[in-house]
C-alpha cells in the first residue's frame, strides 16, 4: 500500500468514526486544507490541525464523506508526494489534490464538482435533441426557445438574475443553463461582447489563450495566443448564442431590494425602454473588478478646455494625432493608452504617481505560466481543468513563497530591460515581498503592467515620464504638486476602479454594501489589502453577509474555474439542498 493509500485509508476511517481529532492529527502542524464547497458550502481555507478539527466538528455530520481514492498514480519529488484524489459526500461528488510530506498531509484541496441527482446532461447523458417518431403536438427546439424567451422574466420568475453581461456573467450563465437553473443576464450594452468592443482599439488580452478558455467550449487550436478585443467580443457573442443563454442586452438595472420574508429580490430593470420587474431568489453582481471607475476629483477639472475622461471611456487615439496628451497613472491601461497614442502621432506624457510592477509578456508566459498554461503543458497532459485545480491547491497563505523565486528569475533574465527603465526614472517594484504580479492582482487588483511594448517606448523616451500627484488643471495644462506644468489637449485618468461592493451601494443600498463589506483582497496587510488575514478572496464566488447576494468576476481563468462552485451553490439552493455555511466571512472593511 502506497503512502497516499495508507493516508487516505486512515483519513477515511477517522471520518467514518467521527474522530475529528484523529483526522486532524494526520496533518502537519503547518498544513492547509482548502475546501471549495464540498465540506463548508463556502470557499474556505483552514490552517493547522486545530482549525481542521474545528471545521470537521462543524461539517462532518452533514457532509458524510466516503470513497476516498486516488485517480492517478501519485508522484513524488523533493520529498513531497502529490496525488489526485476523488471522494463523495452525502450530496455530491468531489475531486482534489493531496500533498504529503513525511507521511502527513501538508496541503489538501477538496472541491465539489457535481450534485447527486442533479448532474449535468453531458457525455453519455447528453440530451437527444429530438424525439423521433410522429407527434402532432411536436414542439421544435426553436419553438421551445421562443416560448422560454417570451415567458422568462414576464410570466415566469427567474431563479437567478445576473447583473452585468461580460465574460464572467456569460460563463456563469452557461454553468447555470447546464444545471437547469432559470437565469437572466442583464447587460446595459446591446450585444454580448460590447464591453470589449467599446474599449480603446489597441486593447487585447494580456493573458495567453490557454489561460482564458470559457467553460465547455475551448478556443480552437488556431486561436491567437493573445486575443484582440473585438475578436474576444465576437467569441462571447457566439458563445452566448450557442450556449442558449437568456441574455438581455440593452437592459439597465435601476434598483434591487431584498424581501427577507419572501426570500426574494425585487429587481427593477429597463429593457429597450420597457420597465420590467424581476423577482429572482438569487442576485449575482457580475459587474467585474474593472466596472466602476475611480475618477479623481481635481481642482480645475471644470475649467480645463481640452478632452478629459477615465480610461474606461477612452475612445482610442485617432483624434489626437499631433496633440499633447497626459495620461494619469502607470499601470496596464495607462501603458496601453500611451502606446496607442504614440503610434497615432500624439505627444504623450505618462504621470507616474507610485511605483509599478512591470513584467515582460514573453517572460511571464515562459516562467510564470508555462508549467500550467501553455502548449507544452497541454502536450504534457496538463489540461485546463487540471491546471486550474493545481493552481487552486496552493493555499494563498504560502502562494507568495512559490511566486518569489519565479519573479527572481524574471528580474535576472530581463536585467538590462529594467536597468533601462530605471535610467529614465521609472519607479519599479516587485510587490512588497518580491512576489510579483499575480500576488499584486490577488491582493489589490492593480499596480502592474504586462509589457507588450509600451515599456520600450518609456525606456526610449518616446513616452515622456513625469512623477507625482496632480495639484490642479488649468485651461490648457496639468500642474503637478512639485510645480511641473504639462501642456495638455487630452487628459486620461487611468486611475483604476472602486471595490465591487460599490455596485451594491448603487443598485441596492449603502446599508447592504456595508453589510457585505469590501470585495476582493486576501487581508495580506499590504498596500490596498488591509488585514486581518482572510485566506480567500473577500466575498467572491461564495455566500456573503447579505442573504442571497453573490459576487462573481475576476480574470477569465478565475471566472471559468470559480463559476462552477458558484453555480453549484445556486443550484443546491434552488433544489432545497441543505447548505449549512461554515466560516462565513467577517466584515472588517467597508470599501
Overview of the molecule:
Pfam families: Pyr_redox_3. This is NAD(P)/FAD-dependent oxidoreductase. GO terms for molecular function: flavin adenine dinucleotide binding; monooxygenase activity. Keywords: Oxidoreductase. The chain is an alpha/beta fold. Helices cover 31% and strands 23% of the residues. The strands form six sheets. Strands 1, 2, 3, 4, 5, 6 and 7 form a seven-stranded mixed sheet that branches. β8 (160-163), α5 and β9 (183-186) form a beta-alpha-beta unit. The model has no long low-confidence stretch (mean pLDDT 95).
Q: What descriptive keywords fit this protein?
A:
single chain, about 600 residues, alpha/beta, seven-stranded mixed sheet, 18 helices, 25 strands, globular
SSE layout and pairing:
Layout: H1 3-16, H2 20-24, E1 27-36, E2 43-47, H3 48-63, E3 66-70, E4 75-77, E5 80-88, E6 92-101, E7 104-115, H4 141-151, E8 160-163, H5 167-178, E9 183-186, H6 194-197, H7 229-242, E10 247-248, E11 251-259, E12 264-271, E13 274-278, E14 282-285, E15 307-310, E16 324-328, H8 332-343, E17 347-352, E18 357-360, H9 361-369, H10 375-379, H11 384-392, H12 396-413, H13 415-423, H14 436-444, E19 448-451, H15 454-459, E20 464-467, E21 470-473, E22 477-480, E23 485-487, E24 490-493, H16 501-507, H17 510-516, E25 549-551, H18 556-574
Parallel strand pairs: 1-7, 8-9, 8-14, 9-10, 14-25, 15-24, 16-17, 16-24, 17-20, 18-19
Antiparallel strand pairs: 1-2, 3-5, 4-5, 5-6, 6-7, 11-12, 12-13, 21-22, 22-23
Mean of all residue-level pLDDT scores: 95
By helix and strand content, what is the structural category?
alpha/beta
Which range does the strand content fall in? 15-25%
List the uncertain runs. Answer: none
* CA radius of gyration: 25 Å
The gross shape turns out to be globular
From the structure provided, what is the oligomeric state, counting identical versus distinct chains?
single chain
Number of helices: 18
Strand element count = 25
Helix content: 25-40%
Distance between the termini: 52 Å
- Biggest sheet layout: 7 strands, mixed
GO molecular function, one term: monooxygenase activity
Protein name: NAD(P)/FAD-dependent oxidoreductase
Organism: Solirubrobacter phytolaccae
InterPro entries: Auxin_biosynth/cation_transpt (IPR050982), FAD/NAD-bd_sf (IPR036188), NTF2-like_dom_sf (IPR032710)
Amino acid at each position: 500500500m502506497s503512502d497516499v493509500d495508507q493516508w487516505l485509508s486512515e483519513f477515511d476511517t477517522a471520518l467514518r468514526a467521527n474522530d475529528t481529532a484523529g483526522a486532524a492529527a494526520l496533518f502537519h502542524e503547518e498544513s492547509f486544507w482548502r475546501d471549495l464547497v464540498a465540506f463548508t458550502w463556502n470557499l474556505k481555507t483552514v490552517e493547522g490541525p486545530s482549525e481542521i478539527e474545528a471545521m470537521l466538528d462543524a461539517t462532518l455530520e452533514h457532509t458524510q464523506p466516503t470513497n476516498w481514492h486516488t485517480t492517478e498514480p501519485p508522484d513524488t519529488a523533493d520529498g513531497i508526494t502529490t496525488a489526485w484524489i476523488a471522494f463523495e459526500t452525502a450530496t455530491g461528488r468531489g475531486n482534489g489534490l493531496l500533498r504529503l510530506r513525511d507521511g502527513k498531509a501538508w496541503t489538501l484541496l477538496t472541491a465539489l464538482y457535481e450534485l447527486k441527482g442533479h448532474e449535468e446532461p453531458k457525455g453519455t447523458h447528453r440530451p437527444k435533441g429530438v424525439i423521433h417518431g410522429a407527434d402532432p403536438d411536436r414542439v421544435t427546439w426553436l419553438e421551445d426557445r421562443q416560448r422560454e424567451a417570451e415567458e422568462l422574466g414576464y410570466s415566469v420568475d427567474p431563479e437567478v438574475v445576473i447583473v452585468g453581461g461580460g465574460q464572467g456573467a456569460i460563463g456563469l450563465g452557461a454553468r447555470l443553463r447546464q444545471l437547469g437553473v432559470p437565469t437572466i443576464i442583464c447587460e446595459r450594452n446591446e450585444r454580448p461582447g460590447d464591453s470589449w468592443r467599446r474599449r480603446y482599439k489597441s486593447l487585447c488580452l494580456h493573458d495567453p489563450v490557454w489561460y482564458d478558455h470559457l467553460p465547455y467550449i475551448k478556443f480552437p487550436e488556431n486561436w491567437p495566443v493573445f486575443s484582440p478585443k473585438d475578436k474576444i467580443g465576437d467569441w462571447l457573442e457566439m458563445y452566448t448564442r450557442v450556449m442558449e443563454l437568456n441574455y438581455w442586452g440593452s437592459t439597465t438595472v435601476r434598483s434591487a431590494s431584498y424581501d427577507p420574508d419572501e426570500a426574494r429580490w425585487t429587481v427593477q430593470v429597463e429593457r429597450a425602454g420597457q420597465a420590467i420587474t424581476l423577482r429572482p431568489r438569487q442576485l449575482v453582481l457580475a459587474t467585474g473588478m474593472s466596472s466602476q471607475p475611480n475618477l479623481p476629483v481635481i481642482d480645475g477639472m471644470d475649467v480645463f478646455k481640452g478632452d478629459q475622461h477615465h480610461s474606461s471611456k477612452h475612445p482610442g487615439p485617432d483624434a489626437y494625432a499631433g496633440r499633447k496628451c497626459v495620461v494619469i497613472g502607470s499601470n496596464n491601461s495607462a501603458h496601453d493608452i500611451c502606446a496607442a497614442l504614440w503610434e497615432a502621432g500624439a505627444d504623450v506624457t505618462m504621470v507616474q504617481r507610485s511605483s509599478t510592477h512591470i513584467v515582460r509578456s514573453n517572460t511571464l508566459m515562459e516562467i510564470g505560466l508555462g508549467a500550467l498554461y501553455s502548449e507544452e503543458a497541454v502536450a504534457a497532459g496538463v489540461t485546463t481543468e487540471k491546471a486550474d485545480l493545481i493552481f487552486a491547491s496552493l493555499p494563498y497563505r504560502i502562494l507568495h513563497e512559490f511566486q518569489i523565486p519565479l519573479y527572481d528569475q524574471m528580474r535576472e533574465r530581463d536585467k538590462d530591460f529594467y536597468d533601462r527603465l530605471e535610467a529614465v526614472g521609472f519607479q519599479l517594484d516587485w510587490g512588497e515581498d518580491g512576489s510579483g504580479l499575480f500576488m499584486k492582482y490577488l491582493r489589490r487588483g492593480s499596480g502592474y503592467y504586462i509589457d507588450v511594448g509600451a515599456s520600450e517606448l518609456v525606456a526610449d523616451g518616446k513616452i515622456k515620464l513625469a512623477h507625482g500627484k496632480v495639484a490642479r488643471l488649468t485651461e490648457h495644462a496639468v500642474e503637478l504638486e512639485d510645480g511641473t506644468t504639462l501642456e495638455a489637449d487630452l487628459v486620461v485618468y487611468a486611475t483604476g476602479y472602486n471595490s465591487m461592493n460599490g455596485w451594491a451601494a448603487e443598485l441596492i443600498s449603502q446599508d447592504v454594501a456595508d453589510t457585505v463589506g469590501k470585495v476582493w483582497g486576501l487581508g495580506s496587510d499590504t498596500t490596498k489589502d488591509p488585514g486581518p488575514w482572510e485566506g480567500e478572496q473577500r466575498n467572491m464566488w461564495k455566500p456573503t453577509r447579505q442573504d442571497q447576494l453573490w459576487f462573481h468576476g475576476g480574470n477569465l481563468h478565475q471566472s471559468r474555474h470559480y463559476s462552477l462552485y458558484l453555480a453549484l451553490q445556486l443550484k443546491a439552493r434552488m433544489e432545497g439542498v441543505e447548505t449549512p455555511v461554515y466560516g462565513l466571512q467577517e466584515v472588517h472593511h467597508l470599501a
